Amino acid sequence: MPNVTMYCTAVCPYCTMAEKLLNKKGVTEINKIRIDLDPGKQAEMIERTGRRTVPQIYIDDFHVGGFDDLSALDVDGKLDPLLAQ
């Protein structure tokens, strides 16, 4: 199973949906980086992704993007191969 990292906040419905989709795909461990608890992590996320919204999801070093991007990968059949690494 690859390393999955998600920048998130406590009250983000898209973060919850992303986590549920990943769990459904067999991902049991997600490295959650809570940008609402550590403002420095928000700056890190913006610098790393170029985006300001959460969630921002990485599978290993591949930047998936947000929930819509994750869901689109799943619909296109491209998420399972990424998670099978």
How is this fold's topology laid out?
Elements: E1 4-8, H1 13-24, E2 31-34, H2 39-49, E3 56-59, E4 62-65, H3 67-75, H4 79-83
Parallel strand pairs: 1-2
Antiparallel strand pairs: 1-3, 3-4
Helix pairs in contact: 1-3
Overall description:
This protein has 85 residues and is of the alpha+beta class. The protein has one domain: Glutaredoxin, CATH 3.40.30.10. Helices cover 44% and strands 20% of the residues. Strands 2-1-3-4 form a 4-stranded mixed β-sheet, with helices on both faces.
Give descriptors for this structure.
single chain; 85 residues; 4-stranded mixed sheet; globular; alpha+beta
At CATH level 2, the architecture is 3-Layer(aba) Sandwich
Terminal residue distance: 6 Å
Helix content: 40-55%
Beta-strand percent range: 15-25%
What global shape is seen?
globular
Instruction: Tell me the major beta sheet.
Output: 4 strands, mixed
Element-by-element helix/strand order: EHEHEEHH
Largest sheet strand order: 2-1-3-4
Q: Spans of 5+ residues with little confidence (pLDDT < 50)? A: none
Overall CATH class: Alpha Beta
What is the overall number of helices? Answer: 4
What is the number of E strands?
A: 4
> What does the radius of gyration come to?
12 Å
SS-based structural class? Answer: alpha+beta
CATH third-tier fold name: Glutaredoxin
Q: Could you say how many structural domains there are in total? A: 1
Q: Compute the average pLDDT.
A: 96
